[in-house]
Design a protein that fits this description.
By secondary structure, the chain is α+β, with helices and mostly antiparallel strands. The protein is built from three helices and three strands. It is globular and about 40 Å long.
C-alpha cells in the first residue's frame, strides 16, 4: 500500500453581520469555526502559538494580523 495523504481545508471569509469567519474542515467532513488555526506538519506548535497571541488581543487591524501570521521564524510554520 502507498502512503496515505491527508487533505484538510481552511476556509476564510467575511460575513456582513458577523465579520471575519474561519472554518477548518477535515477529510471526514467535520468542520468547526476558529478564531485562529493552522494545518500541516507543525499544526500543534503553530496552533499553540496562535492561541497565545489571540488570547492577548483579538481586535486586530489587517497589518497586525499579517505581522502575527508571519513571525521571523517562518520555518516554524512551514516545517522546514
Amino acid at each position: 500500500l502507498g502512503s496515505f495523504l491527508f487533505l484538510g481545508m481552511i476556509l476564510i471569509g467575511i460575513d456582513e453581520e458577523q465579520g471575519p469567519q474561519v472554518y477548518k474542515c477535515d477529510p471526514a467532513g467535520y468542520y468547526c469555526g476558529f478564531k485562529a488555526t493552522a494545518a500541516g506538519v507543525k499544526q500543534t506548535e503553530s496552533t499553540s502559538f496562535l492561541e497565545k497571541k489571540v488570547k492577548k488581543k483579538f481586535d486586530w487591524t489587517f497589518e497586525q494580523t499579517v505581522e502575527v501570521s508571519q513571525p521571523k521564524g517562518a520555518d516554524f510554520f512551514y516545517g522546514i
